[in-house]
Design a protein that fits this description.
This protein has 390 residues and is α/β, with parallel strands linked by helices. It has twelve helices and 21 strands. α1 runs parallel beside α9 (298-319). The longest helix is centred in the C-terminal third of the chain and has 28 residues, at 323-350. The model has no long low-confidence stretch (mean pLDDT 97). The structure holds adenosine-5-diphosphoribose and P-hydroxybenzoic acid (PHB).
Length: 390
């Protein structure tokens, strides 16, 4: 039997950042992860950080490489009707974004946590949560072919949408809200120079596209595709042709194609669980909420949850006060719902849902309004860079 203060299930960005932040405040934790470090840091996900996330990562002591290799972006383009319009994030909101791949961030977090041996247990199986409704929760799990038990004061469920933590809460104690979208995103990574120095979000009658990057020599592109599509339907040549067809001329002529080294299709979903807390179990990140990637909010929301939960746990040990912990769910959900609304709105504005010409006209009218109204552009900018904490 092992004992710790906080047991964390899942070593994704949520779990490792929480463990790192707690350690920097003198709070002990153990992280149980079913995959290997190579698998976890090899997962290709998004790569756009709000500045509040950048500051939290620096506070956690893992910002050095991120600031050296990350790309600061003060704006992005919205392309539609064969033209493009720049959203001046810095000018409209006073804040920038940082382009830094989530898998790079994962590497930094794994390296930082490995400084404390036996804090993260990899390739752990059969994690089960017990007595989460009491003041003495415990976890059982299998590791290195042996059964183990971990006693703790708190459990942080950082195990993503398909984890065991949310499932451990009696279903009648939870309310779950979900919206699925009738399309997916086909993403591609290639070592070719990006077609533009900033991101380009594309509205087109053939479907949405996004031109992003990881560095000045590595590009990340996405095209909206039918959910039932398979990767084998999309050889590189078809991807580049389709992307080119969706881009206004001024961007299309800048497009450099090349062999991809990663290609994947992801479904789009909006999902929120209420409350994000049951007994001594706290749900964090994708274990509690999912947003479509259009607004790049997934990782940033997870970091925001971690910030609020870490404050509550530190306050509990330092001042013996449970107040911030009792407020965790309400404070986190306030931000989650605003980001869920923004991600749904941005997805609805830029994607093709049907061949309905009226809907198409409404989208174009809203895009025209966005391009011509400082108020509308400011609203987009302040949501995109991340709303201030309450
Ligand atoms: N036992 C142990 N580990 C588990 C279990 C389990 N039963 N189930 C899941 N895990 C691990 C997964 O292997 C994964 O490494 O939990 C981790 C969850 O990580 P993420 O899914 O990345 O979730 P989170 O850390 O909340 O990060 C959210 O990542 O996926 C992006 O778009 C998402 O940007 C968002 C961010
Ligand atoms: C990415 O670079 O992968 C990315 C950027 C912005 C988004 C989504 C994904 O909105």
């Amino acid at each position: 039997m092992r004992r710790t203060q906080v047991a964390i299930v899942g070593a994704g960005p949520s779990g490792l950042l929480l463990s790192q932040l707690l350690a920097s405040q003198g709070v002990d934790s153990v992280v149980l992860e079913r995959e290997s470090p190579e698998h976890v840091q090899g997962r290709i996900r998004a790569g756009l950080l709000e500045w509040t996330t950048v500051e939290l990562l620096q506070e956690a002591g893992i910002g050095a490489r991120m600031m050296r290799e990350g790309l600061v972006h003060d704006g992005f383009d919205v392309a539609f009707a064969d033209g493009g319009h720049r959203i001046d994030l810095k000018g409209l909101s006073g804040r920038s974004m940082l382009v830094y791949g989530q898998n790079e961030l994962q590497k930094d977090l794994i390296e930082a946590r490995s400084a404390e041996p036996d804090t993260v247990l990899w390739q752990v199986h059969d994690v089960a949560l017990h007595d989460i409704g009491t003041c003495a929760p415990r976890l059982t799990y299998a590791h290195a072919d042996r059964r183990h038990e971990l006693h703790c004061d708190f459990v942080a469920g950082c195990d993503g949408f398909h984890g065991v933590s949310r499932a451990a809460i009696p279903v009648e104690k939870l309310t779950q809200y979900e919206r699925t979208y009738p399309f997916g995103w086909l993403g591609l990574l290639a070592d070719v120079p990006p077609l533009h120095e900033e991101l380009v979000y594309v509205h087109h009658e053939r479907g949405f596209a996004l031109c992003s990057m990881r560095s000045h020599g590595r590009s990340r592109y996405y095209v909206q595709c039918p959910l039932e599509d398979k990767i084998e339907h999309w050889p590189d040549s078809r991807f580049w042709d389709e992307l080119h067809a969706r881009l206004p001329e001024r961007y299309a002529r800048q497009l450099v194609s090349g062999p991809s080294f990663e290609k994947s299709i992801v479904p789009l979903r909006s999902f929120v669980t209420e409350p994000m807390h049951f007994g001594r179990l706290y749900l964090v990140g994708d274990a509690a909420h999912i947003v479509p990637p259009t607004g790049a909010k997934g990782l940033n929301l997870a970091a925001a949850d971690v910030r609020v939960l870490a404050q509550g746990i530190v306050e509990f040990y330092r001042a013996g006060s449970p107040t911030l912990l009792e407020e965790y769910s309400a404070r986190a959900l306030g931000r989650v719902w605003k980001a869920t609304r923004f991600s749904w709105w941005f997805t609805t504005l830029l994607h093709r849902f049907s061949a309905d010409p009226f809907a198409e006209r409404l989208q174009l009218a809203e895009l025209e309004y966005l391009a011509g109204s400082a108020a509308a552009a400011r609203s987009l900018a302040e949501n995109y860079v991340g709303l201030s904490f309450d």
